[in-house]
Design brief:
Number of strands of chain B: 22
Number of helices of chain B: 22
Shape of chain B: globular
Distance between the termini of chain B: 25 Å
Largest sheet of chain B: 7 strands, mixed
Number of domains of chain A: 1
Strand order of the largest sheet of chain A: 1-2
Number of strands of chain A: 2
Largest sheet of chain A: 2 strands, parallel
Oligomer: heterodimer
Shape of chain A: globular
Structural class of chain A: mainly alpha
Number of helices of chain A: 14
Strand content of chain A: under 5%
Radius of gyration of chain B: 26 Å
Distance between the termini of chain A: 50 Å
Largest interface: A-B, 33 and 42 residues
């Protein structure tokens, strides 16, 4: 069952990726990418390693965190839920089969596409900074999100008020629960990682709007759909979504500050661990200054980040 | 708290009916935005040190038990309507049980009460549920904190007496429950399961809840390819994959997997509801009246002479001896084996084990067990899992338990299973070794996970946390076809053997001898015909139905929730590709009162609260008719013929719901509290003073 759902997911997302790459990235960037990919891979490798480590750590922590949080976590009482539950109920009162299908699609397929496509799109840029910021922001989302999950235990609307809120996704397409339970526990609702990761992509897409103007619009739309879908499908409360947006903001801001601060490669060259931070800063300069030269015309946000 | 803010001012606007409530709240959502400041003000007045009566109501989330949380939500709304401040506390099953059974944390709790055995359980389970001696304990026993001498006497009489006298005592217990409300039984669900007849066969009726039922199953359609038979069953509870300790009270309710892993002396036979010898090759029960302390009544003691099967082994190959059985009862009575300052009885099976007076090992395979109970219920002590002494002693040693320590004052091989009542059992604090700390129900040996070494027909092959658990047939078990068995009859047809066994069991409740002889006992042993049982953990009833219908799985092992049953396609029903198994459950939904806490200790308060549950509406709306509303926790055959009237006849005879269709008549409901001396303030809040 899980395999079947996974295969379907991979096929659909692959089709979406191919179509969007053709539409948004374009032939010339792909041609450059073929020439420069080694260099770019080298530049993004460190943060990729960090992200993968966090994801692996996350999957291990997922086994223990819920039990830990039942011990130390703050159990959110029903009060917030009762106040805003009416919003979720109102949202669901608008339900039609078409909307349910649309939001289910958003929650599963569009979401995965939204997270994967910018990796492709930013990899196609000579300047790897957007990609490094994206991966750093993902890492921060997962890390900070996990911390929230340790300290806050809460169930989503479908689990708390079954008489009012339907589990539209799982009722309509039970098979998806096999997929989502691999990634999430039903007590991990605050904040909504679906919202925070989608919003992160939307924030970064807005920053790179001069490079990928159409993608910025598409990303914004999908992020909005995903955020609404989490509530429409009865999985998250409005407060979880707001917290998700806040987490995205924090992650994007932090990643902007942190990316480019340290360079693993310089550190490896100097072989002196104690000098890693200052030398990383200075050693980074040539590469950083070289990069915007290529993309400066199309990426003002990046250079403004440099100035700050 | 929207509803809370709305309800006192406009009581009639609290419709529980799904559509209207939904639209009311949807409308309220629109109105909330401008008036939210106002709602907050109301709220802060309420919170302002006011003397409003407030309660916590615990239950489990929709994913764990949709019926329970829907009942709890209904009660939450009716309690709020009568002016009580309610906090709904939703926790996953294991945490819920910890709060209810070990911490006694909630004021009220809604759940499904687990009762072992077939659809018609013996009312003796109420002894463990209600006896005062367990009120201070942590575990499945008496979570309500009830203490009542008259109730204790009735419970003891039903345990010791037989026939009419026992019946009378059971009736008093039922009347006590109905009138004084330690808990309120709500409804008894019908257990639905789904199976693919092309994959398996062998269930006698719609029931599939006990070890013997699984032994009856046979796979079909794997003709002659020599491959191993494998049953792919879907399980809706992930706890067995996380913890296999048969004593962990938070990790299991009823648990057929533990039953398959751990054999007991006797096994419950579904059709007759009786207990047949299982690990015991035969047993003889001898009851003798024994004068009561004050010379009244006819309390009984029953002594069983048990002969174990000589061919039974634990999964590690060690033979099962009388010493293992004696150890089991001693260990269940005090899991610290006398090493802790106070005894730490096991948090499960407590009511049954408390009846054991004395266990005497006579030989390798023979022992006698003296039970403080009459012949009708004495053999219930035979349904606890038998644990291997060598394994558990080793495990206990890791916790600093010295098995010989508690036996110092005792004669060899005898034990006292009611250590709490006899000070002599307690260990002296000035012993050379420091006593271990063994908080009841929580300490490692009973709460932590174990490698399950039992003696059941299946043993653990593999498990993956929250994913699945695989049991493989234990070829050293006597219920396995390949097992070297001198008996001629080996066709393993359970349906037939149960029929043969019927007449025997009719008599066994009252006759002294129950063993029908060696040959008989062996020839009617059901056989485990399936090589491997794979319990695949599935997240929901909806998905489990979908997978079974699609042929992805052979069986749903867990009870399906009523809400999902309409997902079984009519076509699959019609062409016979799936079959529905249906049976009345021995378990029941209930509202538990923690009588240790505040207003809940007041019987008048409990009686008023019991009115606030519309059982008829719950059965219709929550269970779609797949449940029966109930007044008492046991089957109809135990109800009193005359007074008091405890029969459901369209409405609850003791605590009828004021209102209909789940909608509370708020004035009438508030009158129920006022008539009992409770007071309301001018804002319609029920005051805490009473």
């Amino acid at each position: 069952m899980l395999l079947e759902v996974l295969i379907r997911l991979v096929v659909v997302v692959t089709v979406m990726l191919l179509a969007s790459t053709a539409a948004f990235v374009g032939r010339y960037r792909l041609r450059d990418t073929r020439l420069e990919w080694r260099e770019r891979v080298q530049e993004v490798a460190p943060i990729t390693v960090v992200l993968v480590a966090v994801l692996l750590g996350n999957s291990v922590a997922r086994q223990t965190v819920p039990d830990l949080s039942w011990m130390i976590g703050w159990e959110r009482t029903g009060q917030i839920e009762a106040l805003e539950g009416s919003f979720i109920v109102w949202l669901q009162s608008q339900a039609t089969p078409e909307l349910t299908a649309y939001f289910s699609f958003s929650y599963i397929y569009a979401y995965v596409f939204l997270l994967v496509f910018p990796i492709v799109a930013y990899f196609a840029l000579s300047n790897t900074r957007p990609l490094r910021e994206l991966l750093a922001a993902y890492t921060l989302n997962y890390t900070l999100g996990l911390v929230c999950y340790v300290f806050v235990i809460a169930y989503g609307p479908r689990n708390m008020m079954p008489e009012l809120v339907d589990a539209l996704l799982y009722d309509t397409y039970p098979r998806y629960q096999h997929l989502t339970r691999q990634v999430n526990r039903n007590t991990n609702v605050f904040p909504s990682l679906h919202t925070s990761l989608s919003t992160t992509v939307a924030f970064l897409a807005y920053r790179t709007r001069e490079i990928y103007p159409k993608w910025a619009l598409v990303a914004l739309w999908i992020a909005l759909s995903v955020a609404v879908s989490t509530m429409y499908l009865g999985i998250h409360w409005a407060i979880d979504v707001l917290a998700g947006v806040a987490l995205a903001y924090v992650s994007v801001t932090l990643s902007e500050l942190l990316v480019g601060q340290w360079s693993v490669w310089d550190w490896l060259e100097s072989r002196v661990p104690s000098q890693s931070e200052p030398s990383g800063q200075s050693g980074k300069r040539p590469r950083e200054t070289r990069d915007p030269e290529r993309d400066r015309a199309v990426e003002p946000t990046d250079s403004s980040g440099e100035d700050g | 708290m929207n509803r809370n803010a709305l309800s006192p001012s406009s009581p009639s606007s609290l419709p529980d009916e799904r559509v209207s409530r939904r639209s009311v709240l949807a409308a309220a959502a629109v109105a909330t935005v401008p008036t939210s400041g106002c709602a907050t003000r109301v709220r802060s007045v309420v919170d302002d040190g006011g003397p409003q009566l407030s309660l916590t109501l615990g239950t489990v989330p929709t994913d764990d038990d949709r019926g329970a949380i829907r009942i709890a939500r209904h009660l939450e709304s009716t309690l709020e309507a009568v002016g009580i401040d309610v906090t709904l506390d939703v926790r996953q099953s294991s945490e819920f049980l910890e709060a209810v059974l070990l911490d006694h944390e909630f004021d009220l709790f809604v759940g499904r009460y687990p009762v072992d055995g077939g659809p018609d359980p013996d009312p003796d389970f109420l002894y463990g549920a209600l006896h005062s001696q367990f009120a201070t304990e942590a575990g499945r026993q008496n979570p309500f904190g009830v203490t009542d001498m008259a109730l204790d006497e009735a419970l003891e009489t039903q345990r010791r007496a037989d026939g009419r006298e026992r019946r009378g005592a059971v009736e008093s217990v039922l009347a006590y429950v109905a009138e004084r409300k330690p808990f309120e039984p709500i409804c008894r669900p019908i257990e639905h399961r789904l199976a693919r007849p092309e994959a398996i066969d062998g269930w006698a009726d719609g029931w599939l809840g006990t070890e013997l039922d699984y032994l009856g199953l046979e796979s079909v359609g794997t003709a002659g390819d020599g491959s191993a038979d494998r049953l792919h069953a879907l399980l809706l509870d992930s706890r067995p994959s996380r913890n296999c300790n048969p004593l962990s009270v938070t990790m299991r309710d009823r648990d057929v997997i533990v039953d398959l892993l751990y054999d007991s002396l006797g096994a419950v036979e579904r059709e007759t509801g009786t207990i047949r010898p299982w690990l015991a090759d035969r047993w003889e029960w001898e009851s003798k009246p024994e004068p009561n302390h004050d010379g009244t009544g006819s309390p009984r003691r029953t002594t069983a002479t048990v002969t174990l099967r000589e061919d039974a082994h634990f999964h590690d190959g060690e033979p099962i001896t009388a010493a293992d059985v004696a150890f089991t009862y001693r260990f269940l009575a005090d899991t610290a084996l006398g090493n802790a300052p106070v005894p730490s009885p096991a948090p499960r099976y407590r009511g049954r084990v408390a009846a054991v007076d004395d266990v005497e090992v006579r030989s390798e395979t023979e022992l006698s067990i003296t039970v403080d109970a009459g012949s009708e219920v004495a053999n219930r002590i035979a349904t606890v899992p038998i644990l291997p002494e060598h394994v558990w002693i080793e495990r206990l040693a890791e916790y600093g338990v010295d098995p010989d320590r508690g036996l110092e004052d005792e004669a060899e091989n005898t034990l006292d299973t009611n250590p709490g009542l006899e000070p002599g059992y307690e260990s002296e604090p000035d012993d050379e070794k420091a006593a271990v700390s063994a908080p009841q129900g929580r300490w490692g040996p009973v709460a932590g996970d174990v490698e399950p070494i039992g003696s059941g027909p299946y043993r653990l092959a593999d498990r993956s946390e929250r994913d699945g658990i695989t049991l493989e047939r234990y070829e050293g078990h006597f219920a396995v076809p390949s097992f070297p068995d001198e008996s001629a009859d080996r066709d393993g047809n359970t349906t037939a053997t149960i029929d043969e066994d019927g007449p025997n069991d009719e008599t066994h409740g009252r006759t002294e001898s129950d063993g029908s002889g060696e040959d008989g006992a062996q020839s009617d042993t059901p056989t485990a015909s399936i090589d491997e049982l794979y319990f695949d953990i599935d997240p929901s009833s909806a998905s489990a139905i979908q997978r079974t219908v699609a042929g992805d799985a052979d069986l749903t092992a867990s009870m399906l929730e009523a809400d999902a049953l309409d997902r079984i396609p009519a076509a699959a029903d019609a062409d016979g590709s799936v079959r529905r198994l249906e049976a009345r459950s021995p378990t029941f939904y209930y509202l538990g009162f923690n009588t240790r806490r505040g207003p809940v200790g007041n019987v008048h308060f409990r009686r008023a609260v019991a009115h606030l549950i519309d059982k008829a509406w719950i059965v219709d709306d929550v269970f779609h008719g797949e449940a029966d509303p109930i007044v008492t926790p046991v089957g109809e055959e135990w109800l009193p013929d005359a007074e008091p009237d405890l029969t459901w006849d369209g409405t609850d005879p003791v605590a009828p719901f004021p209102g209909e269709e789940g909608e509370l008549d708020v004035e009438a409901a508030r009158a129920l509290f006022e008539d009992r001396g409770f007071q309301y303030d001018e804002d319609g809040r029920l005051l805490r003073r009473y």
